[in-house]
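Hi everyone,

Forwarding the result from last night's run.
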Amino acid sequence: MERILVIRLSAIGDVLLTTPLVRIFKKKFPQAEIDFLVKKSYRTLLSTNRNINMIWSLSPEDGFYEMIRLSRKLREKRYDCVIDLQVNLRSIFFCFFSGAKRRIIHGPQRFKRFLLVHFRKNIYKEIEPVPLRFLNSVFSLGLKDDGLGLELKVDEKARQSIPLLLQKAKNGRKRRIIVLAPGAGRATKRWLPERFAEVGSYFGKNRNQIVLVGGQKDLEVCRKVAQEMDPAPLNFAGKLSLQQTAAVLKESDILITNDTGVMHIAAALGKKVVAIFGSTTRHFGFMPFRTSSIVVEASVPCRPCSYHGTDKCPHNHFKCMKDIRSVDVIQAAEELLRRE
């Protein structure tokens, strides 16, 4: 095992969920070169990872000829082992044409997910976090769980830029910095904006600094939350890079979030997390990994209705989110904040 390639193209949370496996690989084979193939937009999540030697990346718009060019470069590296943790057409292509002596393809539990989503048939024997599923994929190599969590080191440049952004919070003698992430890729994974605003207002009136984070796609929902909050929060939606978002979370006391990538960034930094789950469920393994956290969810018979969330509630009632009250989330956050 001199050269190892790990493939996970996307997305934010999924890439971070591979970091325990990479770390354990490095402990098992300390002299090995461990490379990683990821989409360019998520490269920064791994750029500071000391266990990774080289990062290969590609863009979603890269065509077939670009894939051929990259596959030739991978083949020239003569990898001893390639682990495909993505399992889609692109990742399988690179895995197959890598020429590696050993190719391992992660077996996602798609049949179990299918039965649970479409027939409400739960055949999961236990709720197993995704990082441990990744580890089980390579059990033949003798890798063992080290009991540690996700890994993400904040870039020094990003870290230095954050104190200026949070100067208002520190100079205002605020008690804590509480981060809200009201966005998500799909509508059924987003808790109601007005309830995020209620939670933010509650903590804001208790001399805490409230900060909103999110990407370009979260601008509107964060604007709604900020507009309804009193006192007004610091709204960083669409203004920060992934590394800067991590730097903000590093300075925070707690994150209150939907089931989205920011949740895993906070977990990788060892931060307290209140995670709000709507159409998805912990059975899929994407809950905060090995950090102090509480998952808030409603008990409705139609959950889960999808794996990644959808743009509209298929039953037109959205009870999975509407049944979660602001007080439920406030109580969960206060419980975490009381913990040492």
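The CA atoms of residues 46 and 297 lie 31 Å apart.

Cheers,
N.
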